[in-house]
Each structure stands twice: as structure tokens, then as C-alpha cells.
């Protein structure tokens, strides 16, 4: 995997003769040290139709300065990007190409823009000489290599980047000083964005919502499809919670297809939902292993040492390590598959030409509540059936089915939230409480199965199974508590007036 760092910076417009104002005394800045001059030459790569630029990603090959090589920048938040670095070579490194595969999908990465920058560097340091930030003045000459109206553009900008581990409040203080000196924040988030804009490119903008049911559902689908592609790179980088977030995006997409069948033609969405179900299943192996490992580790950590009999921690680590490696390999294989690429293409095709039904043209406030209440009726039937069953396997299965339906009801309400306002948000919150209790119950069921397996293996190896049995009993007690709490939570999640959330 390529080396990575978090880049937190601010950019400002500047005239060619602009001098960096004195920043000494700003917050903890004790001195501004001259860092010399560097000549940078960077070629930015993208597909011919600018898929990376549309997603605010930048991929470049740069020479000059102290970090020559390939750089991929992934947006995290305004002014914050993760920069991944790979050694200098002629072609795009495989490690970086894989991270943008969800965007490129086999399309070639070609030279797009060449940026040559004359950089004047100044380092902001504290009283001990430790770096706080770096302020640079860049005189930039950009040449469009493909697409656009060609030609070159030139500009000057000032960039202030926080040092690793630095306090973001410093950037706020520097910002105030620069604004007082007349400097304005840059209109583009990156040099590449400015170069593209100044040479004729306009980033695609999603359609504005028009108050219709179709507009609201499609806006949600676009958001989740974007999250799916965004978390692809995070999963490949093995970032915390990435698999979970990507899996949630697949579930939200499936849920919208199912809940809003009056809005979108299911003859188109059903096959796509099946592929999303496949992807969620592949991701689920990794995510379920992650959740279960965290749960069992926390349970073991909470026990007093006097109750840890036998090599409990070692056995748990061995089980977790083996399961994690297998799950991780399965996840990456799915993301590298042609089936996954076809799924992403199908999502794009649906959003480009949505299969809208007549109800899509009606007001969101008329169509969406009926779909939510229909899903709630399914949930009611499943909850009531589960609560009527005696404790045991059949009830556990029924509660798990109710949990999945509760999640679908909540997602449907969240889709409608921007259109329906507070009633939908309150309703989603109440259903989420039901879902959480059902989820805790199901996690306990899965944990007990695993604890039993670990106890069997421990016994077969001549170890005592006492600790595993103790944890099994505690999980059983937790599940019982969830079942006792469920009726009260469910009562609060039932809509009030007929036909109203």
C-alpha cells in the first residue's frame, strides 16, 4: 500500500507581486523560517471524460521538491485531503490505480494537465523550532494536455498547510491575519480544479430537487451511489469502519428500490437490487468478523483476571486473525471482480436514465409517507409474530427478520426526511431504537454460537472452557434483557394518527 498522510490546508488568491504577510506572533508562531525555492513539475492524470476530477480526486506524477513521486489525493472534508504517495516511475503505480478503480472501471488514465510551479517556501515554527505549518507562494503555469480549449493559464496563490499533528486552530488564526491583509480564499479547491476550470471544464452538477417524489428518491440514490464509490478506496486502504459504511450504502440503495416501487420501475431495479445484495453479502463477511471480534474482545477485557482461566486471549487472537485474513481476501476479490464493475455501471445507467413511474411526478409529501407506512405495517406483523413465539431458535430467527425490516423502515423514513421534515426524522429515530435493540439481540445470538465453538475447541485442546461458558451466559442474559425492552420500544415506534408519521 502507498504511504499516506493527512493534508489540512487553506489556499488564497494572490497577485504575482504579493508578499506573504508577517505571520510571527500568530497563535504559537514564534518565527517564520525561509525554506528556499523549489521548481515543481507535475503532470495530472485522469480518464478522457474526467471521472476523477468530477469526484474531486487528483492523481499526479511530480518531480522537483522533497516529495517527488506519484501522489493521489482523496477528499475527506473541505480543506482536508488524504495524500497517498508512491515512488517515481513512468506509469501509474498499481497501488494507486486500484484505489481509483471504482471511478475508472477500466478506462485508461491519460495525461490531462501539466502544472509547473515556482514555489517559495516559509516554515512557521514555535519557540523550540518545531514546525507548526508551511506557507508557500506558488507561481503556477498550467498547460492543458487533453480536452478543453487547450492553451495555458497562469496565476499566483498562497497555500498554508498544517504540519503533521498540528492544531487546526492555527489555520483559523492565520486565516484572520491574511484576510486583514486583503487576501481572499481561493475559488478552487486545488490547482488542478482551477486549471481545468480556466481551460473550459465545468464539473457536472446533480439536478436540483423539484419537490416531487421522484426528485427526492433520485437525490438519495445519487448520494448513496457516490458513497459506494467513495468508500471503495477506504475499504481497499483498510480504514476503520470503511467496510461498514460501504455495506450501509448498498443496503440503503436496496431499501430505496424496495420501499419506493411506486416511484421506480421494479423491472429495472429488482435485478440491480439482487447485485447489491450480493455485494452486501461479500462485504458482510468482513464486517461481521470485525464486529464479532470487537464484541468478544471487549467482553474478555471486562472480566477480572481471576475469571480468565486458560489461554483465553491467545485463543481469541488466533481465531480473530484467521477469520480476518479470510474475510479481507474475500472483500478485495469482490471489489476487483467484473461483477462489481458491472454493478457500478448499472447504477450509473439507472441514474442517467431513471425508470420513473407515474407516482414519481407527484408531490413527495403525498407519495413517500404511504410507502413508509406500508413498510411499517410489514414490520408490525413481524414484531408481533416474533413476540408471540416462545423463547428459542424460532424466536431468534423471527427477531432477526424483524430487525432487517426495521432497518428498511428507518431507511425509508430517512430518504423522506428532507421532504417531510421533523415528523419523518422523529419517526426514523424511534424506529432506530427498535432496530438497535433487535440488532443487539442478534449480535448476542451470533456471539453465543462463536463462544460455543471456542469452548469446544478449548476443551478438545485440554483447556478449561469455564471462561467461554461464562461469557456465553452473559450474552444470553443480555439477549433476554433486549427481549424484555422490545415491547416498550415498539409501542413508541407505532405511528400516532392514521396515515400520519
Report what the structure shows.
The protein has 501 residues and is of the alpha+beta class. The chain is built from 14 helices and eight strands. It has helices at 51-54, 94-99, 101-104, 169-180, 191-198, 213-236, 242-259, 266-302, 312-335, 338-352, 364-388, 393-420, 422-460, 466-492, and strands at residues 3-14, 31-46, 58-63, 69-77, 80-86, 110-125, 131-144, 152-162. It has an eight-stranded antiparallel barrel with strand order 1-5-4-3-2-6-7-8. A hairpin with a 5-residue loop joins strand 3 and strand 4 (69-77). The two termini are 48 Å apart. 34% of the residues are buried. The mean pLDDT is 93.
Question: What keyword list fits this structure?
Answer:
501 residues; eight-stranded antiparallel beta barrel; 18% strand
Q: Summarize this, please?
A:
This protein has 501 residues and is an alpha+beta fold. The chain has helices at residues 51-54, 94-99, 101-104, 169-180, 191-198, 213-236, 242-259, 266-302, 312-335, 338-352, 364-388, 393-420, 422-460, 466-492; strands spanning 3-14, 31-46, 58-63, 69-77, 80-86, 110-125, 131-144, 152-162.
